[in-house]
Structure to design on (139 residues):
């Protein structure tokens, strides 16, 4: 049986935005790319956080005029990272400890190779467990 890694469940298309980019532009790109998050960089190229659809929804629900704000004006999610080769159990533990909704997975060179959403990992893990139980019951 093949052992899957968190990277197998991650979105491989990593999309970035700038800290000083207008929120309305980032929201438009999230829709166009059909994604729920972007890595946020400052102009020096340093990763400073993650903007997610939930970050934008929270700002709207707080009556912020997001159309006139920059990404840096929002309360971004912390950028939590893990190796793309780490085990699923270790990543689940990191989700639990940090409260993050997504984790950036790093390749061997320390570059972001994918973004893993906790909700997706939970879904796949339940499916995998169900599939194993089903196979055992058929023996």
């Amino acid at each position: 049986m093949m052992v899957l890694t968190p990277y197998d469940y991650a979105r491989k298309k990593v999309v970035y935005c700038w800290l000083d980019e207008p929120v309305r532009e980032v929201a438009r790109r999230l829709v166009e790319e059909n994604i729920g998050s972007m890595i946020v960089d400052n102009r020096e190229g340093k990763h400073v956080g993650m903007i997610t659809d939930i970050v934008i929804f929270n700002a709207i629900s707080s009556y912020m005029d997001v159309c006139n704000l920059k990404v840096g004006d929002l309360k971004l999610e912390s950028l939590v990272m893990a190796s793309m080769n780490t085990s699923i159990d270790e990543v689940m533990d990191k989700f639990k400890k940090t409260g993050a909704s997504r984790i950036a997975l790093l390749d061997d060179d320390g570059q972001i190779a994918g973004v893993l959403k906790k909700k997706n990992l939970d879904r796949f893990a339940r499916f995998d467990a169900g599939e194993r139980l089903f196979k055992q019951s058929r023996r």
Observations:
- The chain has one domain: 10-137.
- DSSP finds four helices and six strands in the chain.
